[in-house]
Amino acid sequence: MTYTLLRGNFVIRYPDLPRQGPEPDGDTIKFLPDTPALIEALPRPSGASPDLNRRGVSVRLEAIDALETHFEETHQRLDWAYAARDRLLALLGFTGVEFFDDLPNKVKRADQDSISGHVLTNGVDANGRLIAFVYGGATDTPDGAPIFLTPDLADASANRALLAEGLAYPAYYATLPVDLRDHLAGVSRAARPATGLWPHADGHPGNPATVTPETLDETVIWPKLFRRLVPYFAAGFTGFDQFDTWLRADPVHRDDAVWLIGRREHGNLHDVVRASGDQIELTVWPEDFVIAPDPATGPTTPPTAVTGDLVIVAALPNPAGADAGAEKITLLNVTPGPIALDGWHLRDTSGNRTALTGPIEAGEVRVVKVGWLNNESDSIMLVGPDDVVIDTVTYKKEQVQTGRTIVFGR
Question: What's residue 344's pLDDT?
Fold first, then answer.
């Protein structure tokens, strides 16, 4: 699956509002994108718009679920919750991080309030957060570039490190491609049973957890299950004899739809949980089922408005006769004024590029001849002078016909 690369800075403290700053944990962190407009173009599987403001957007790390440092006025076992959080910050490059004694989830001081990094994202979740693999450090890849995320590339992410070190549980949503899910499932299985939190974990197949309202915050269990138990106990229940009924009563916010990989059938969370008395357990490992995104409450596709002032409207990848120098890409200036193209370029995902120069007047088109368009399929990026992707289009093999121009609908 193709992901979008976003450059920016991970942020853990607001110098002007330190006691109101972000609250990083083991699987969520604030990210300030270099080009906020790119986020508006991302898919929205649950119909939620990105919760983006001038300070950034929260990023939810794909494929993992770390113990909760704070959830509805409670938490999970803090030594392992903090271990995941601190390791994530270290993987991204933060050092000297200290938290307030009276606000233990907010950063009091650090050697860096923010640090350069990038994410690979394929959409926005139901809470308006980016779903992403995260990476510390700069990249030479243009901002907004489409990236095919391979297992090797996923292995370089902080997500994979947290799984491999046993600091996070797997949690695989339907947004995760199958090849990555299978690969990361192997990483998670290899971490068990002796790595990180696993020797302390309960509530998994064959090892039921004994849980009461008083012991919940000290029990190491799958975090998504913990997030169901908190409101269950808050409703006044003290044992699990009513848990199955309680789950089924709300198929959206409690009894998540799942795909049972081994059985090859659809089900719900209640199909993978066994609970009675004071004991509860998953009947299959978390990597053996896929969680469906929350049902859509709005449009799942991004707005049709373009994110840049110059757009790619057409391409001729296979001209009649020799391709070299006869392939064409057509640009359109949608603004009311001229745009100077010096320092801009066109490129594809293989790194081939053609420099652009001179002005393009308001409402006019520019036809650019290139010699690197792929007749099988390709993505074309229009990159501005700051190495920011202004526009991207993709065409497939079946669209390519000799001598025929592909028009990209807007």
Answer: 93
Which of 256-266 are b and which e, b meaning 16 or more Cβ less than 10 Å from the residue's Cβ?
bbbebbeeeee
Percent of the chain with pLDDT over 70: 98
**Confidence label for 294 from pLDDT (cuts 50, 70 and 90):** confident
SS3 content of the chain, % helix, strand, coil (to 5): 20, 30, 50
Assign 410 to helix, strand or coil. Answer: coil
Mark out the alpha helices in 202-350 (DSSP H runs): 223-234, 243-248
CATH number of 2-170: 2.40.50.90
- Kindly list the strands in the beta sheet with 265-268, ordered across the sheet, starting from the edge strand earlier in the chain: 265-268, 257-260, 289-291
State pLDDT tens for residues 299-351.
777 654 345 689 999 999 999 887 777 899 999 998 888 899 999 999 998 88
> What value does the mean pLDDT take over residues 243-251?
97
Q: CA 207 to CA 283: how far, in whole Å?
A: 9
3-state SS class at 31: strand
How far is the C-alpha of 316 from the C-alpha of 370, rounded, in Å?
Answer: 10
Rounded mean pLDDT, 258-271: 96
Q: Domain residues of the chain, as ranges?
A: 2-170, 199-291, 310-407
* CA end-to-end distance (rounded Å), the chain: 23
Please choose, from the candidates 30, 34, 33, 36, the residue with its C-alpha nearest in 3D space to the C-alpha of residue 12.
30
Q: Residue 339: helix, strand or coil by DSSP? A: strand
Share of the chain above pLDDT 90, in %: 83
Q: Are 113 and 49 in contact (CB under 8 A)?
A: no
Q: Which of 65, 95, 94, 75 is nearest to 184 (CA)?
A: 65
Main-chain phi, psi angles of 397, to 5 degrees: -55, -40
Contact in structure between 65 and 27 (CB atoms under 8 Å): yes
Q: Which CATH class is domain 310-407?
A: mainly beta
- The Cα 319–Cα 323 span in angstroms is 6
